[in-house]
Amino acid sequence: MKNILIINGPNLNLLGIREKSIYGDQSFQVYFDSLKEDFEENVELSYFQSNIEGEIIDKIHEVGFEFDGIVINAGAYTHTSVAIGDAIAAVTSPVVEVHISNVYQREEFRHQSFLAKNCKGVICGFGLESYRLGILSFLR
């Protein structure tokens, strides 16, 4: 059984409510519950969300030497946080960066990631299914 943590950053607590044309109309909790059911035989899934950069860093430090993988959507911190990128580099658990939208079809500033260099891979543009693809990358 693999232990995998999903981390969501700022404003992702508003999924299903905010900018539905970009992020869809499903809450993350509903989606997360379906992921837990789909992977229940192979994966112990945990979930953490924060709008606060330091809390995200603390969570990476807390699990980053024990868990089999971390799937992170750092939201806007992807494009601004050297500190989260450094936290990913500091731990031994592999990390996959995910995004719901295709960031390369959006504003220019979203094309830069301070996390990607330290991640196993990056998945974007598949809606909420980006998280499922990230989890699958740890199982194959």
From TrEMBL:
Q: Which reaction does it catalyse?
A: 3-dehydroquinate = 3-dehydroshikimate + H2O
> Catalytic center at which residues?
23 (proton acceptor), 99 (proton donor)
Q: In which residues is substrate bound?
A: 73, 79, 86, 100-101, 110
Query: Which Pfam families does the record associate with it?
Result: DHquinase_II
Per the UniProt record, the site (Transition state stabilizer) maps to 18
| Enzyme Commission designation | 4.2.1.10
Q: In which pathway does it act?
A: Metabolic intermediate biosynthesis; chorismate biosynthesis; chorismate from D-erythrose 4-phosphate and phosphoenolpyruvate: step 3/7
Cite a single GO MF annotation. Answer: 3-dehydroquinate dehydratase activity
- Please tell me which top-level EC class this enzyme sits in: lyase
Q: Which domain of life is it from?
A: Bacteria
- What are the record keywords, sorted? Amino-acid biosynthesis, Aromatic amino acid biosynthesis, Lyase
Read off the InterPro entries from this record.
DHquinase_II, DHquinase_II_CS, DHquinase_II_sf
Gene Ontology annotations of biological process type:
amino acid biosynthetic process; aromatic amino acid family biosynthetic process; chorismate biosynthetic process; quinate catabolic process
Q: What functional role does this protein have?
A: Catalyzes a trans-dehydration via an enolate intermediate.
On subunit structure and binding partners, the annotation says: Homododecamer.
Write out the similarity annotation. Belongs to the type-II 3-dehydroquinase family.
**What name does the UniProt record give this protein?**
3-dehydroquinate dehydratase
Source species, please?
Answer: Sphingobacterium hungaricum
Q: What are the top taxonomic ranks of the organism?
A: Bacteria, Pseudomonadati, Bacteroidota, Sphingobacteriia, Sphingobacteriales
What gene makes this protein?
aroQ
